[in-house]
Amino acid sequence: MHAPIGHFDDAALAPAPDRLDELTAPVADAVRRWNGAVPAERIVYVDTDPEWADTAVFVEHYGRELLEQSANCVVVAGKRGGGTSLAACVVLSTTRVDVNGVVRRQLGARKASFASMDTATGETGMEYGGITPIGLPADWPVLVDPAVVELPYVLVGSGRRRGKLLVPGAAFAELPGAVVLEGLGVA
């Protein structure tokens, strides 16, 4: 198998359905149940060193062009009254999430902020630094910047710090709870 983006050893690549044992339980379950127009076999698992999980270090090792083809998935908490709701935001790595504008309004929250590490990992069942939009709780909104959907392939976390997923951009718009939201990612 050859990587659709990046410079990876072909031996480290496999269709995600063939590497379910390398994924966290919620991510593996989501790949197993995948039913979008983009076939699950087009989602590629890449075995990578967890020491290189952070984007800046990762692109230095696997190709600087990946910076423009990488996305971050962050968990945000919206608060209104006494309640808190969680959502995920997926933006290109070259941008930041407009938490206090676009996200807050979309969630109908009085205040929005990044969720704590304990909340993000506890609620997703994923490792911090590897959170991916694939396999999130079904009732969460998954807010996706249109620039992510427009790319042929996007590098995202795999649910663990070890490993990444190469996902066709169009697949992000098909995730449960997905809302493609203009202005989500800002420079």
From TrEMBL:
GO terms for molecular function: aminoacyl-tRNA deacylase activity. It comes from the Bacteria. Pfam families: tRNA_edit (PF04073). InterPro entries: YbaK/aa-tRNA-synt-asso_dom_sf, YbaK/aa-tRNA-synth-assoc-dom. SUPFAM superfamilies: YbaK/ProRS associated domain (SSF55826). Residues 54-172 form the YbaK/aminoacyl-tRNA synthetase-associated domain. Gene3D superfamilies: YbaK/aminoacyl-tRNA synthetase-associated domain. This is YbaK/aminoacyl-tRNA synthetase-associated domain-containing protein. It comes from Streptomyces griseoviridis.
